[in-house]
Automatic annotation (TrEMBL):
It comes from the Bacteria. Pfam families: GIY-YIG. SMART domains: GIYc. Residues 3-78 form the GIY-YIG domain. Transmembrane segments: none annotated. It comes from Candidatus Sungbacteria bacterium RIFCSPLOWO2_12_FULL_41_11. InterPro entries: GIY-YIG_endonuc, GIY-YIG_endonuc_sf, UPF0213_domain. PANTHER family: UPF0213 PROTEIN YHBQ. This is GIY-YIG domain-containing protein. Coiled coil: none annotated. Belongs to the UPF0213 family.
Amino acid sequence: MQWKWYVYIIECEDNSYYTGMTWQPDTRWTQHLSGMGSFYTSKHKSQRMVYLEEYENIDEARRREKQIKGWTRKKKEKLIEGKWGKW
């Protein structure tokens, strides 16, 4: 069985965004909430997951994560609002 991979965006308490990827979104979200998810979210405190995309393989997810991380806040907000396509 091949795992599905997910790229997600979390909004933090200071209104910043964190972008990551995982094959277990529920588990990863719990890790972020507990302060164990990443150095960034441990300092900025995760508030809510605002976006999630599914991919068939890790390479696609990794490319997408890197792409989104390079975007401006405004572009990320358009994606979250559904006004920006996958590619």
